[in-house]
Amino acid sequence: MKNQLTYFFIILCFSLTATAQSEADYQYLIHKELGGETEVSVTSGRVDLVTENNAWEIDWANKWKHAIGQAIWYGLQTNKKPGIILIQSNTSEFKYVQQLYSALAFAGLSDKIDIKIYPSDFNDSSTNIQNIYQSNTSSSFYYWLSINSKKRHNINCYQFEKSKGRYCKEHEGIAAKCCGG
């Protein structure tokens, strides 16, 4: 019985990990549509996405309160209009969207901060994040993007996963000299 429970627990953990989507997965899709530059370093932080007109904070719907402060700070640091992109992963999270709009209206900030909701405000809102995640999994775990240097390391490099960073695609960042990216 103990072995069966252990096996069940391992399978459960694996399946949850395989289907969980990170903020970076959504950031990838959003960047794909809006363009711009991701993970731009500023004083005391990193802007998720900087486009021609906006400094976008991309966050889960339930973190809308934090997103307001970050968006305002990033707008100030980049001299661009603050923007918030909330990731609404299911319909029950619409309450967070309403709370964000209500708070901004109350504070008189509705016209000062651009708001987008993923997926409803995006052209490719029919795209299934799981399909994109699965199609990119084979190549995305072979490269590591160091956030501060924006250098890309391949899986055989001694620097792979050693710095603050994230998994990335072969074309992202700058190929590191130590491994050719």
Shape: elongated
Largest sheet: 5 strands, mixed
Strand line-up across the major sheet: 1-2-3-4-5
Q: Can you count the beta strands?
A: 9
Integer tally of domains = 2
Name the structural class.
alpha/beta
Helix amount, in percent? 25-40%
What does this molecule look like?
With 181 residues, the protein is α/β, with parallel strands linked by helices. The protein has two domains: 22-129; 139-181, no CATH class. It is built from five helices and nine strands. It has helices at residues 2-19, 23-34, 64-78, 94-106, 129-140, and strands at 37-42, 45-50, 54-60, 81-87, 114-118, 143-146, 151-154, 165-167, 174-175. Strands 1-2-3-4-5 form a five-stranded mixed sheet. The radius of gyration is 19 Å and the shape is elongated. The termini are far apart.
Primary descriptors:
181 residues, 39% helix, 4-stranded mixed β-sheet, alpha/beta
Short description:
By secondary structure, the chain is an alpha/beta fold.
SSE map:
Layout: H1 2-19, H2 23-34, E1 37-42, E2 45-50, E3 54-60, H3 64-78, E4 81-87, H4 94-106, E5 114-118, H5 129-140, E6 143-146, E7 151-154, E8 165-167, E9 174-175
Parallel strand pairs: 3-4, 4-5, 7-9
Antiparallel strand pairs: 1-2, 2-3, 6-7, 6-8
